[in-house]
Protein: DNA-(apurinic or apyrimidinic site) lyase
Amino acid sequence: MPEGDSIRRAATRLHAALAGRELTRSDLRVPRFATADLTGRVTLDVTPRGKHLLARFEGGLTLHSHLRMDGAWHVFAAGEKWRGGPDYEIRAVLGTQGHTAVGYRLPVLELIRTAEEDRAVGHLGPDILGPDWDPARAAANLLAAPERPLGEALLDQRNLAGIGNIYKAELCFLAQVTPWTPVGELPEPKLPRLAAAAHRLLSANIGDRPGHRNTTGIHRPGQELFVYGRARRPCLRCGTPVREAPQDDRPTYWCPRCQPGPTP
Structure:
């Protein structure tokens, strides 16, 4: 499940393969941009913004993509067999003499003017892993709707950009409240601490292997996350079975003993 840390890893791989090199192949397999051709343009950079990817090309063009739940970018060396899914799931192909970047199952893919990137990402709050990270601003954004459940507020990318369902559950556990606790009910020091914890957790997982995250500091299988995906298994802190219920149509996990507060 792509979240801010995995998006940054993807951007790093794409930037290393494409930046400063001329495109020898360009194929955007979405109806609106099927005739667009970036061949011959040099890739300037690939930049993550929250859970969005911005690939910028000379001539003032940006390819904006969002992976949502199961999209992925893969980079292959010249002549290497593509492995990322069946061909009908491919939405974008960007090739240089040495590498080919292939985007699979991309629900959002659009070619826009670089000068108009704010239209795609200007609504985002401070990027947890970006140069604009500001924990005080993130905490203020969360508190702007004090009646809103914390779990929903953390997933709202307008408050802070980069958190997905996994980190939502883990951060609520660390804050020792249920995801349904109204933001305004958290003691004042907790929100800045929560924002700082988000930055710490995502930063610690940037260099990890794709699909793998650790929030507990324990490196034994099945004990690398506090609550996410651990329904009916004992809490790593108190032994109480972890519970699961939907929140905003997503599975949400919490420990009923370690995390007091409202539940569904």
